[in-house]
Amino acid sequence: MTIDWARQRILILAPHPDDETLGCGGLISKAKAAGAEVYVQFLTVGDTADHSERGFSTAGERYAEIKEVADHFRWDGWHIAFPGDDHHLRLDVLPRFELSNAIERHSPLSIAALEPTVVLSPHRSSYNQDHQATAEAVHTALRPSDRRARHHPPVVLTYEEAADQWHDGAVPAPGLLVELAEADLEAKLAAMRLYGTQVHDHPHTRSALTLRSLAVLRGMQGGVALAEGYHVLRWLA
């Protein structure tokens, strides 16, 4: 099963800045090199008390990091749907109707406005409440319906992060493996370094060694050197 990345318009739904890189950084590099369009819809960002050497990061610092990462990956566009401390780490108390509608039609990078061919969202197994709320809202926004009336992205995938494995139930293995070149993984690791308020030394779920180790594991499962894993919600061939 293959996909021609050069022909795709990709929309990534990221609860916070860095989630798109943690889950899809290698694919972003691979797809952009092939000629794809890549857009990132962040759901929220705000001031953050980080368990890191920085100790605290402001929304302004996070915006500056996004701009650097956007230039690094050459994104075609990005947007934050619900900025500010009223929403950051509080998406689970935002009415689902409002969150789903932003993804479906009310954002400049909504499904209706962008008409993407590939949509990527977080997996619902995450322990983070913002990730869970985003996953559920995307599930609603991309519900099956008559595609003559609503845009139906033919490929809908959920991405994984290393922290998702912290779960008391069985998290299924990714059903789709995207092979990465070493250059794709290096681009992912470089992007995480640009998220200076969020990257950590090992052992941590956002360390370079963790990201490389997960790519090696997924690559081994596909019989290649490196890969990223995705769960398939829709693949219309």
Largest sheet: 7 strands, mixed
Q: What is the helical fraction, as a range of percent?
A: 25-40%
What's the architecture, going by CATH? 3-Layer(aba) Sandwich
Radius of gyration: 17 Å
- The CATH homologous superfamily name equals LmbE-like
EC number: 3.5.1.-
Keywords: Hydrolase, Zinc
Pfam families: PIG-L
GO molecular function: hydrolase activity
Task: Summarize the topology.
Blueprint: E1 9-14, H1 19-34, E2 37-42, H2 59-73, E3 77-80, H3 96-106, H4 111-114, E4 118-122, H5 129-141, E5 155-159, E6 176-179, H6 182-194, H7 208-222, E7 227-235
Parallel strand pairs: 1-2, 1-4, 2-3, 4-5
Antiparallel strand pairs: 5-7, 6-7
Organism: Nocardiopsis mangrovi
GO molecular function, one term: hydrolase activity
EC number: 3.5.1.-
Q: How does this structure look, described?
A:
This protein has 237 residues and is of the alpha/beta class. It has a single domain (7-235), classed as 3-Layer(aba) Sandwich (Rossmann fold), CATH 3.40.50. Helix content is 37%, strand content 16%. The protein is built from 7 helices and 7 strands; from the N terminus they run E-H-E-H-E-H-H-E-H-E-E-H-H-E. It has a 7-stranded mixed sheet with strand order 3-2-1-4-5-7-6, sandwiched between helices. Helix 1 links the parallel strand 1 and strand 2 (37-42). The termini are close together. The mean pLDDT is 91. Its EC number is 3.5.1.-. InterPro entries: GlcNAc_PI_deacetylase-related, LmbE-like_dom_sf. Keywords: Hydrolase, Zinc.
